């Protein structure tokens, strides 16, 4: 006898093809991209930038295990990145000075494993008291712990190396895969390998029962308790894993930079990882990846063009929080999603309007900021885009500030009003 | 949408980046240009740019035009290493850095590793302000040259100055609680005991770095100890707040600082600091000097509306120029070989780049903050001045070194 109710429900489980497309294909594409890049003959700058992006992607994803997947706002995630990195750094020195024994046979290539273990250990110790509460108490405790570790970083010189940190040499120990680890192109392969492992591992984590329970605990801890799980324990376990993956990113950074300083456990990188995850979009698995790429680029390259890069970063964050809370990934998936559900043709007009408005408003803002920065420097340097000589005394400057800004805001308002009318 | 914005931004600013001409000698200036330490890096950059201008006016270095390319390192060691890679990509083989011993430590390491891994494509490093003594002692490198006197040399000069003043009987040492402050505290203690055993060190205190907002309790302690002079290696807000608290408490004894003359301090402290605030440095703009040097100071201050502070940047540029001309090439290893042991007659005496550890030996001056000066700082009628007795000769600043230099073939 068949149950009539069960019969009438369509099978909602994804087909094998869907599973492959959604779960395995993106990882394969990522792997293909990182393997293909060296064939274009990148320069040192590109190698350096890509390596740091790889480190930051793993770091930001590990942070999103807490914020996006677990609903835990942490202000001290760099602690685990830093402690994992320090563990790897000390291991690197042990390899360098090894005289036989375990460390003499340990390849530098495997150091992220040490970082992973170090981060997990730190997470297990620090998470024990701090995971008892979620929400604001958790955030406050994480802030306190971050301050504590940052202060300790300058006090315990044998562990953290004082202001100048500790450094090592990655060209020691046995070689794996024929990589000497000396030139940046060798280190790129190392970073690429661990990037794929890290991203794959963290994606796999979201598919485990613990990963699923983490999302459930974020949404409704009471219900989780009702069905027989202990939310505290779920949080604690997730916290350990997040710390471990952050430590792994730290291990990658230790090998790449060959130096770790107490600055790495301070509040600055903790804030930066929050920005990466949030700007990228915490609701999507790929969000922090996008955020890490964009922010790493801004941090290392934008400062060549303007010393006001921090201001642009702040503006970007504010705009995302106010107008696109789902982050850059939300915008991208919004556009691609409209292809599949057929709303693309309706939405494209509005998007183009918004894009034009935002572009114009930003143009005006750039002129205002750059002219101001050069003026406040006070040594006669002038903002000269496209051969224009823009100073505050030049009426053209004000035209270029006011007209695009006003026009941009007007277009944006119109676009938004139309949306409201459609919704009403 | 936001992604496109940043892409558009980058594209828009791409046009501002300057193209390099064929015959240039590029110096990569890696220092903070944004954030809380931005002003310090910015001031140093202006000095480098002006120094480059002067050299270019005189025909450049071996006929090559000097170009300063600035990289913002955000005083972050890791970020500095990324900027270092970018600089190498752009053909920079000489880097200059000063602010932050943590960054300097990372860069010395990075330069050494780069040179070891890329023979024939070496980079040299001109350090104009990072003062950790180890850089020219056990961590010394053939490719690193320091154009500032290191912390122990400065402390040596400060204690020499104290030792020469019999009226000083009690000294108080206060500093920030991290490696630099701790090293200073130890050095002050040892040096005073060796030079003037009769002086009593009535206090040797470390306070949390950058956390103290009101130094009055510390000042009360110093006053109770009846100190005749206070030594501090404090910099930034810790220095300014300490001095301001001393002024407010009416504690009128000399405060002997390392960084009393740093940018913005004069404005923050104001005329109440006159006669009380001292600074040990390689220059003050009111010293008697040659007309050329005075013209250089005038020229700089007119060009950038900023106080002349980093005299050592001009020393570094001139010595680099002379070493390159002597080597007859702009190959940096050849330049480095000529820089070793090089001497230069400056407006304030002869300076030497000591060959054994690449440490500059230069005369130091204990200057006092004064309202009776011909040349003020930061647009104020206040400035720094010193008498004949406040000069510590270059030889007297020399300290023994533990450096075992490894030189290329």
Description:
The complex is a heterodimer of chains A (424) and B (409). Chain A is mainly α. Chain A has 2 domains: 22-310, ABC transporter involved in vitamin B12 uptake, BtuC (Orthogonal Bundle); 343-423. Chain A has helices spanning 4-8, 16-36, 44-67, 78-96, 111-130, 135-155, 157-160, 184-207, 209-219, 221-226, 231-257, 267-280, 287-305, 309-323, 327-341, 344-377, 395-423, and strands at 166-167, 259-260. In chain A, strands 1-2 form a two-stranded antiparallel sheet. In chain A, helix 3 packs across helix 12 (267-280) and helix 9 packs across helix 11. The termini of chain A are far apart. The mean pLDDT of chain A is 85. With 409 residues, chain B is α/β, with parallel strands linked by helices. Chain B folds into 2 domains: 23-149 and 286-362, Rossmann fold (3-Layer(aba) Sandwich), CATH 3.40.50; 152-281 and 364-395, 3-Layer(aba) Sandwich (Rossmann fold). Chain B contains 13 helices and 16 strands. In chain B, strands 6, 7, 8, 9, 10, 14, 15 and 16 form an 8-stranded mixed beta sheet that branches. Chain B has a 5-stranded parallel beta sheet with strand order 2-1-3-4-5, sandwiched between helices. Chain B has a 3-stranded antiparallel beta sheet with strand order 11-12-13. Chains A and B meet through helix 3, helix 6, helix 13, helix 14 and helix 15 of A and helix 1, helix 2, helix 3 and helix 4 of B.
Entry summary:
The complex is a heterodimer of chains A (424) and B (409). Chain A is mostly helical.
List strands and helices in order, with pairings.
The complex is a heterodimer of chains A (424) and B (409).
Chain A: H1 4-8, H2 16-36, H3 44-67, H4 78-96, H5 111-130, H6 135-155, H7 157-160, E1 166-167, H8 184-207, H9 209-219, H10 221-226, H11 231-257, E2 259-260, H12 267-280, H13 287-305, H14 309-323, H15 327-341, H16 344-377, H17 395-423
Antiparallel strand pairs in A: 1-2
Chain B: H1 2-14, E1 24-31, H2 38-57, E2 65-72, H3 77-89, E3 94-97, H4 101-117, E4 124-127, E5 144-146, H5 151-163, E6 170-176, H6 179-195, E7 200-207, H7 216-224, E8 229-232, H8 236-248, E9 255-257, H9 265-269, E10 277-281, H10 291-304, H11 311-327, H12 332-339, E11 343-346, E12 349-353, E13 360-361, E14 364-370, E15 383-385, E16 391-392, H13 394-397
Parallel strand pairs in B: 1-2, 1-3, 3-4, 4-5, 6-7, 6-8, 8-9, 9-10
Antiparallel strand pairs in B: 10-14, 11-12, 12-13, 14-15, 14-16
Helix pairs in contact in B: 2-11, 3-4, 5-6, 11-12
């Amino acid at each position: 006898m068949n149950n009539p109710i069960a019969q009438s429900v369509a099978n909602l489980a994804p087909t094998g093809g869907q599973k492959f497309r959604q779960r395995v294909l993106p990882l394969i594409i990522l792997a293909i991209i990182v393997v293909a890049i060296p064939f274009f003959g990148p320069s040192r700058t590109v190698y350096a930038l890509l390596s740091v992006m790889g480190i930051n992607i793993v770091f930001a994803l590990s942070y999103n295990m807490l914020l996006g997947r677990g609903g835990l706002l942490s202000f001290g995630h760099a602690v685990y990145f830093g402690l994992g990195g320090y563990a790897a750094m000390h291991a690197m020195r042990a390899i360098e000075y090894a005289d036989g024994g375990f460390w003499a046979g340990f390849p530098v290539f495997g150091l992220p494993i040490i970082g992973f273990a170090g981060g997990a250990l730190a997470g297990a110790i620090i998470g024990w008291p701090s995971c008892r509460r979620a929400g604001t108490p958790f955030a406050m405790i994480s802030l306190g712990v971050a301050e504590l570790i940052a202060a300790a970083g300058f006090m315990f010189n044998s562990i953290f190396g004082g202001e100048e940190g500790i450094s090592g040499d990655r060209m020691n120990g046995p070689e794996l895969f024929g990589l000497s680890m000396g030139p940046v192109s060798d280190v790129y392969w190392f970073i690429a390998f661990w990037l794929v492992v890290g991203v794959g591992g963290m994606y796999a984590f979201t598919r485990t029962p613990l990963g699923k329970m983490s999302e459930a605990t974020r949404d409704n801890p009471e219900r989780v308790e009702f069905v027989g799980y202990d939310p505290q324990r779920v949080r604690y376990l997730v916290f350990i894993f997040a710390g471990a993956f952050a430590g792994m990113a730290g291990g990658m950074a230790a090998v790449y930079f060959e130096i770790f300083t107490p600055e790495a456990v301070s509040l600055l990188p903790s804030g930066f990882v929050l920005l990466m995850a949030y700007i990228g979009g915490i609701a999507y698995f790929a969000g922090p990846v996008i955020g890490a790429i964009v922010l790493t680029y801004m941090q290392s390259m934008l400062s060549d063009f303007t010393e006001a890069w921090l201001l642009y970063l702040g503006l970007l964050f504010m705009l995302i929080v106010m107008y696109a809370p789902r982050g850059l990934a939300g915008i991208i998936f919004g556009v691609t999603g409209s292809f599949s559900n057929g709303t693309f043709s309706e939405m494209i007009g509005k998007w183009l309007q918004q894009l034009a408005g935002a572009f114009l408003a930003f143009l005006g803002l750039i002129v205002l900021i750059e002219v101001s920065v050069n003026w406040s420097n006070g040594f006669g340097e002038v903002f000269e885009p496209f051969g224009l000589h823009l100073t505050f005394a030049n009426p053209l400057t004000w035209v270029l500030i006011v007209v695009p800004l006003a026009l941009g805001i007007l277009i944006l308002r119109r676009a938004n009003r139309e949306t409201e009318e459609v919704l009403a | 949408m936001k992604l496109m914005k940043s892409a558009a931004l980058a594209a828009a600013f791409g046009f501002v980046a300057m193209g390099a001409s064929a015959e240039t000698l590029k110096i990569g200036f890696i220092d903070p240009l944004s954030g809380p330490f931005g002003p310090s890096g910015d001031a140093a950059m202006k000095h480098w740019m002006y120094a480059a201008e002067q050299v270019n006016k005189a025909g450049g270095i071996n006929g090559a035009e000097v170009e300063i390319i600035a990289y913002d390192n955000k005083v972050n060691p890791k970020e500095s290493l990324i900027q270092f890679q970018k600089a190498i990509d752009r053909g920079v083989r000489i880097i200059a850095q000063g602010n932050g011993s943590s960054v300097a430590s990372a860069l010395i390491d990075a330069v050494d590793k780069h040179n070891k891994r890329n023979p024939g494509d070496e980079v040299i490093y001109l350090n104009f302000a990072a003062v950790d003594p180890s850089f020219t002692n056990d961590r010394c490198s053939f490719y690193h040259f320091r154009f500032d006197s290191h912390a122990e040399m400065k402390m040596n000069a400060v204690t020499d100055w104290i030792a020469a003043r019999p009226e000083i009987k009690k000294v108080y040492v206060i500093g920030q609680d991290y490696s630099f402050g701790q090293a200073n505290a130890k050095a002050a203690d040892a040096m005073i005991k060796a030079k003037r055993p009769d002086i009593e060190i009535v206090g040797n205190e470390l306070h949390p770095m950058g956390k103290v907002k009101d130094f009055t309790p510390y000042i009360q302690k110093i006053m109770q100890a009846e100190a005749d002079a206070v030594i501090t290696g404090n910099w930034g807000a810790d220095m300014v707040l300490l001095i301001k608290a001393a002024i407010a408490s009416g504690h009128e004894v000399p405060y002997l600082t390392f960084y009393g003359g740093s940018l913005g301090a004069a404005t923050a402290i104001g005329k109440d600091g006159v006669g009380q605030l001292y600074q040990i440095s390689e220059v003050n703009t009111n010293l008697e000097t040659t007309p050329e040097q005075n013209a250089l100071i005038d020229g700089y201050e007119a060009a950038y509306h900023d106080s002349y502070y980093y005299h050592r940047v001009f020393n570094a540029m001139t010595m680099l120029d002379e070493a390159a001309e002597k080597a007859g090439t702009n190959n940096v290893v050849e330049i480095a070989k000529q820089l070793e042991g090089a001497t230069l007659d400056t407006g304030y005496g002869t300076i030497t780049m000591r060959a054994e550890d690449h440490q500059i030996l230069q005369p130091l001056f204990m200057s006092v903050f004064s309202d009776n000066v011909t040349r003020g700082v930061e647009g104020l009628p206040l400035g720094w001045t010193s008498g004949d007795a406040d000069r510590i000769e270059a030889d007297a600043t020399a300290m023994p070194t533990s450096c075992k230099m490894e030189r290329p073939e």
